[in-house]
Amino acid sequence: MNANGTKVRVTIDGRTVEVAPGTLVTDAARAAEVHVPIFCSHAKLPPLGACRICVVEVGMPKLGPDRKPVLAADGAPEIAWMPKVQTGCTTPVLDGMHVRTATPVAVKARQGVMEFLLVNHPLDCPVCDEGGECQLQDLAFAFGADFTRMDEAKRTFESEDLGPVVKKEANRCIICMRCVRYCDEIMGDDALTAHQRGVWTEISSFDRQPLDCEQCGNCVEVCPVGALTALPYRFKARPWDLRQHVTICPYCSNGCSVRLGVRGNEVLRARGTEHRGVNQEYLCVRGRFGYEFVNSAERLTAPLLRMGGAQSPASFDEAVTYAAARLREIVAVHGAGSVAFLGGEKLNVEEQYLFQKLARAVIGTPHVDARTRSTARVPGDAILRATGGGRPAMSLDDLVDAQEVLVLGDDLQGEAPFAQAQLIRGQHQRGLHLTVANQRRVKLARTKFGGDWLAYRPGSEPALVAALARAALELGDAAGAAPAAPWRAAIEGWTVEKGAAATGIPADAIRAAAKRLHAASRKAILFGRAVAEHPQAASLLEAIEALGWASGAITESRAALMSFGPQSDSQGALDMGLTPDCLPGYVPAADAAARGRYEQAWGRTLDLGAGLSAPEILAAAAAGGIKALWIVADDWLASAPDRAMAAKALASAELVVVNELFLTPTARAAHVVFPASAFAEKEGVVVNCERRLQRTVRALAWRKGVKPDWEILQAVAQALGAAWSYRGAEDVFREIAKLVPGYQGRSWATLLPLGPQWSFAANAVLPERRAAAAVAELARAGEGLALLSGATLFLQGGLSHRGTLLPKLAKAPRAFLHPAEAARIGVGDGDRVSLAAPGGAIELDAALDPSVPEGSVFVPQAQAGVELNRLGAAGAPPRVTARRVGARETVGA
Amino acid sequence: MIAGEVLEAPATLAWSAARRAEVDEALARYPIRRSAVLPVLWIAQREWGWIPPAALRLVAVTLDLPEPEVFGIATFYTMFNLKPVGRHHLQVCMTLSCSLMGSDRLFRHLERTLGIGHGETTADGRFTLRRVECLAACGGGPCMQVNFDYHENLDEAKVDALLAGLA
């Protein structure tokens, strides 16, 4: 029995299952493998009971006068059935409950519901995109009658385009409210609503305007019928003509599972995956509509070689031979230390492992760094330490149940859209409280989410974190917060008041935020590029670790911090040692004993000296110290902090090798360009922000002339004399699983569909902690405006530009100014402005946006045409002078 | 002609001081702002005669509600005019008692007399004609509500006399 609330027994169509108390009948039926149809019910939304299709008969054991079950002649308890059918999706199970789904009463009731749902449905399946995967179609087939008693005219609505991604055919709608509720409770957009009432109820937007929302298309995904369909996929294919492959989205670090629909060798759509992946049905606009680059006709299809002047197509063998020969010459003349390896955050871990192995074991250079955007040297294990040093990590699902979440510095809408959706869902459904530390009033900081917004001065993240950590320490000893703890060094000399003065946030607000975090038993601290690419990232990350310990987010047994890297496999790049000071698995490169495992496995000494980090490689290459650069999956001219310096480095290097999908400006500057496979064309393992290992699958046949990066790297290694003989990425993974701490004992076979989150055994060897400097205070004011930047929703990285839809949604690149600031400097909405720094200037159209604080200008990252790194080193924090250089361009003039 | 063409919908609207005071009074009546949405929509309709999209936006901002939600609420209730109406809003009850007493005939007579159909407005902006559900005046059917006034036990002659008296 259910005395202590553990499990309850429920019998459904004669099958008895034990489920948690409070489980809904429909979910218990799924556990009992009994099919109960649903339309309106959704796992992420509270029960509603709008559509009534899940009606079942429900009964409880009949009790006698002695309050004991009355037994029938066969000894089984007699069941008192409720006189009317009940909706299974709103009825929680009780211990001893019986459910019947297939009795004449239940079936007749369901047929009645079906008949009503079809009263006004147009039955236009042959011209409906949902046809073939439509729940209404399936259930009409299963339960519906083969004739209609309705001879009245059906009510009809006009079809509507709700913006560029959603097509609405209201005639097909069954008013299940899934789209409206999903948009409200999970996306936090409230873009859809029910208009009118009764039979004229229709789902639409405000005044039938294009949807003002994230354009995620999740309303299309959750629509159980063809009322909402995706415009980009409209009339492109029939679901039974598509091969469907579930792989991992190539955009952000959330690692959502994405179901690619492929016909021929072309990706025609991307959808969520019901009941699979970290995200299940959820996808953001990039995940759902950003697949176009895979099919692009601009993809590179043959290696390019520059011998003397222009680049010309070459065979793969020629390119490999040339690259190997030039590398050998440069190493012979200038030494292995004149070669540097950059990029690789978009590769899968097998390729990342080979990339650094090629650098360290074959070439013998220590200069490896994937973090090309960094503005300062950051230890390779800094993010790992800040997120708890490899202690068991939190999951994206834990976010929904958290009581208090601190989002530090980043706009999750662009940085980690699924994490943002989890937070909104937690806020809406489970009382999660948000503390959003951001210079701008980003989406999560809006009043509708009921959180607290800490608007700090540009660049003062370290002061804020130090003050929060100090305030948390004032609240008493959190577990592990020993006075001698090494992380205390980072916040040495800071007080709450000093932090308040530096950030411009009242000390009371800092103390209150620290108190909320400290008091919550389920909490999380989230951060991303605003931290990792901060000029003081190294000490800032240590301060975050201090905040983690002081607030109890890090304990001896687990850690509740999550870092969102800039790319889909940024975590893998760190794990695989694409940093100058860490070998794979965070084995310190300078520690002779620790690195022995790799020396033995790779058959050479790894006493390579101190490696340069990405910004140091940039400076060394521009100064002529680095002679050869190998850049993978990274448009360095766009990602390097100083574009002019990167251009100089590329021009002066004797050899530049680039693995790319497209002829990017960086690839154009290369001597050898290897065309590389896109995410949908190769297999491998990627690691998301939860440190979860997930295998990607190959959805497309390999393109002619294009190879996966591991094959390119292996071919060059072999040409350089290395005895590499991997037959596939899985072979590489076997080597990783043998050697790399945290990954040991893993197998590809266990990484589908959802792999585990890796964590270190308690005795992991992290490098000796360097004596960290306390975070320093940045210069506060200066000339001009503070330059704010950050991720945006519609574009990320170089790939999102290659389609048509995402750039259209992102509109033209713009500089966002507070209306008051714009008025002060004499700039109107749409005017052309120049942003100038000592290193250079860029021109953009201005847009007025009150979410940007006065005294600053916000320019989104990753937009084609916005090359912030043309400003050069714009200072820390960066400042620019804004000036109006032209009027708004009038259309048609 | 359709009613939507009678008036240009303004791009933005603001409360007059008097209306703002009424809005504040309505807000003070409820513990949460959202609850005041119907009274505030009424205030908007009194101010502008109908509720253009800009007024819906204004209500949404005033109550800190999503715009689509306010739109959904306003469309749910038929007594909110989301299109401009004439000076005299003729609302003919079509529900059972009135129907038995000849409201269909009466409505057809109005259509012929005014040259407009359900939901339409005369070109001079004088009349808007609409079928409505029960006006709760079943003892006096057929009945018609003109703006806020009830007219009961109607027939064609009484309607003609009534229309003649409305400027």
TrEMBL record, chain B:
PROSITE patterns on file? COMPLEX1_24K
Q: State the source organism's domain of life.
A: Bacteria
- Kindly state what the record says about how the cofactor is bound: Binds 1 [2Fe-2S] cluster.
> Which residues are noted in the entry as [2Fe-2S] cluster-binding?
C93, C98, C134, C138
Xref: CDD domains: TRX_Fd_NuoE
Q: Does the keyword Electron transport apply?
A: no
Q: Does the keyword Iron-sulfur apply?
A: yes
Matching InterPro entries: NuoE-like, NuoE_dom, NuoE_N, Thioredoxin-like_sf
Keywords assigned by UniProt, alphabetized: 2Fe-2S, Iron, Iron-sulfur, Metal-binding
Q: Name one GO molecular function term.
A: 2 iron, 2 sulfur cluster binding
Which cofactors does the annotated protein need, by name? [2Fe-2S] cluster
Alphabetical list of Gene3D superfamilies matching this protein:
Glutaredoxin (3.40.30.10), NADH-quinone oxidoreductase subunit E (1.10.10.1590)
| Family designation | Belongs to the complex I 24 kDa subunit family.
What is the name of the protein in this document?
NAD(P)H-dependent oxidoreductase subunit E
